[in-house]
Amino acid sequence: MAILNILEFPDPRLRTVAKPVESVDDDLRRLIDDMFETMYAAPGIGLAATQVNVHQRLVVMDLSEDKSEPRVFINPEFEPLTAELGPYQEGCLSVPGFYENVERPLQVRIRALDRDGQPFELVAEGLLAVCIQHECDHLNGKLFVDYLSTLKRDRIRKKLEKQHRQHG
Ligand SMILES: [Zn+2]
């Protein structure tokens, strides 16, 4: 397995719209394993392929405290099951060090393929609902900072650009 490089805002490659995965094969499963290793090492709870500069519709996630609940979502789609929005403080491995409240639907239905290519469906609330919406945004080239005011987003962008200049 390998730890992959995570793109950071405002890298324009994070704006790429990912293409659907066409076949769930061993190459894809190797990428999935690398993404888990990268996410756990960061550490983080979710990672979209977009963030490691692979523009396929693939998300890995583990919301447990002890790395015991790895979840794979291939070609994920969600639909809100309620119009009710709730704020949740979000962070992102591509926007390191910044946490801001974002309003999203509180309950969603998720459809995706698992790592064997089998379709599954689940109803999500709480952190899982937030996380899948955040990760699906990545696959569409969108970041949580896009929900913030221009002022806040620019402040974050400038701080990260400064860090990137200092650390290469
Ligand atoms: Zn993210």
UniProtKB/TrEMBL annotation:
GO terms for biological process: translation. It catalyses: N-terminal N-formyl-L-methionyl-[peptide] + H2O = N-terminal L-methionyl-[peptide] + formate. The keyword Iron applies. It holds the Pfam family Pep_deformylase. Keywords: Hydrolase, Iron, Metal-binding, Protein biosynthesis. Its cofactor is Fe(2+). Fe cation binds at C92, H134, H138. GO terms for molecular function: metal ion binding; peptide deformylase activity. Its EC number is 3.5.1.88. It is an enzyme of class 3 (hydrolase). The active site is at E135. Binds 1 Fe(2+) ion. Belongs to the polypeptide deformylase family. Removes the formyl group from the N-terminal Met of newly synthesized proteins. Requires at least a dipeptide for an efficient rate of reaction. N-terminal L-methionine is a prerequisite for activity but the enzyme has broad specificity at other positions. This is Peptide deformylase. The lineage of its organism: Bacteria, Pseudomonadati, Pseudomonadota, Gammaproteobacteria, Pseudomonadales.
